[in-house]
Amino acid sequence: MLLDTRQSLETPEGALLPLTPAGFGVRVLAQLLDILIRYGIVTVLFIVLSLLGRMGTGIALILAFLLEWFYPVFFEVTRQGRTPGKKWMGIRVVNDDGTPITFGPSLLRNLLRFVDFLPMLYLTGIIASLCNRQFKRLGDLAAGSMVIYEAPPAREPSFEVRGQLPVPTDFSTDEQRALLAFAERSKYLSAERQSELATILLPVIGSKDPVIAIKQMANTMVGKQ
Amino acid sequence: MKQGQFEQLYQPLWHVMELEIIELEKPDGRLKGSELASFASRYRRLCHFHALAKDRHYSSHLVDKLGDLVVRGHQQLYRRKQPFMQQFTSFIVAGFPRLVREQQRYIWWATALLYVPGLLMFLAILWQPDLVYTVTAPEQVSSFESMYDPENRTLGSARESDTNVQMFGFYISNNISVAFRTFASGILFGVGSIFFLVYNGLLMGAVAGHLTNAEFTQTFFTFVVGHGSFELTAICIAGAAGLKLGYALLAPGNLTRKESLKRASLVAIQLVYGVIIMLVIAAFIEAFWSSNNILMPWQKYLVGGFLWALVIGYLVFSGRSLRGERGQG
After folding, report:
1. Tens-place pLDDT, residues B123-163
2. What is the complex's ipTM, to 2 decimals?
3. How far does B49 lie from chain A, in Å, by closest CA?
4. Backbone conformation region of residue B269, classed left if phi is above 0, alpha if psi is from -120 to 50, else beta
5. Neighboring chain A residues of B64 at a CB cutoff of 8 Å
6. How many CB pairs under 8 A join A and B?
7. 3-state DSSP call for residue A131?
8. Residues 59 to 78 of B: which have CB under 8 A from any A CB?
9. CB-neighbour burial class of residue B42 (10 A; exposed 0-12, middle 13-18, buried 19+)
10. Using CA atoms, how far apart are residues B207 and A72, in angstroms rounded to an integer?
């Protein structure tokens, strides 16, 4: 729980919003997708509009210009902070206070993209994003925006074990969450590894088979039989 | 209270919230005013339930579900949406010129950085014509020569309209990109903006000086006088916005550098809005008016002078309040 990048943001209601900033790896992939989409559109535009002669070239130049600078702004403002590439990668842009990004900050961060790209391949932006905890590139620092992961849709969990077992009352929410995470991830762990991990909790749980006990507790937590 | 009871009792409320939030998240969501009026109070109750669920150690599945609704509700409740057209008009009429006057310190610096090197270069080339090759390549120089050679202009014929559209597209994409770069690179402690301003100034002075030496003055100056008013002023303002970013980083005062940059950018981006509008006008004039050869030179100088007076007058006087009460400028 200490090693993740999750950050809490306090709202006027006193609620804590959990936000997970997205690092440059996933953002580079999103940007690559967006570049592919943009260049695809520009190529088609120039081919089609060049049939109209010089007037077509003029229109194509304007549209290419708009795509170069305003493609991300358009999608970020109208699609709750998601360009097609970002949507694909499950990330989105928000203001520092967790609200959807608005036109001004979006334009600012996308104009400053030019500087973040310098001297090549977003080197400035990558270095800047490694120097702060929200992975902000220069454009984000100036605009007061950040890129976060979308909250994944709540899954319907299944732990392949029936029956319920009460969770010890002195377990904190984080500890409960750890039990649940173990049960959810057990699909990806071998049986030996599962019991190796679960045995750590043996003194606390005091059951014969801690793996099954934890999964039954997880059942209790999500309200399954 | 047991979790099951809690869920049974309040589930209808957060189910309603969930449906409302989904509706609000759609770009064309339709919710009536009466439904929206109670959204804020329902949202506060939701936050309350979330806090309770967390505090009472209810299952994390429930806590996470409520937490997700809280995040999404927060985004909808605090989103900033304003009527676009109304803001746009008041920005053009008063907001932008006021802002320019407020930030005139940066505007004057940017203007000096563009024109002083330009003027020096112009004079230097009148004195030593070969200096033109210090800022431009020989091919570029000869392309400028052929562009403004009076021999190449068939007098009395305007360019065809589809060529005008092509050039309009070129001016839009080229000039606005230059302005954007001039602005954006200001974040590098102002160095980038200074570079682009000085470089463009030198280039401008070099071309003007070289064509004066070649005695193409009439074709050159009648061409640039019209759109120069909007274009050069816009570049100055873009540079000034960039300088503001750089200065905010260099001298943040009592703020942290990050906070100082954020506040400066809020102002700077509004200057950029104005720059975009001015450059679209400039590209329009450049493509459809400046290239017109039918008109006599004096007509072009007259209109050019009028446009300069218009731009300067707009920036100096527009948006000042009347009747003795002084505006922000």
Report:
1. 998 888 888 888 888 887 777 777 777 766 544 445 566 77
2. 0.76
3. 10
4. alpha
5. 154
6. 156
7. coil
8. 59-61, 63-65, 67-68, 70-71, 74-75, 78
9. middle
10. 36
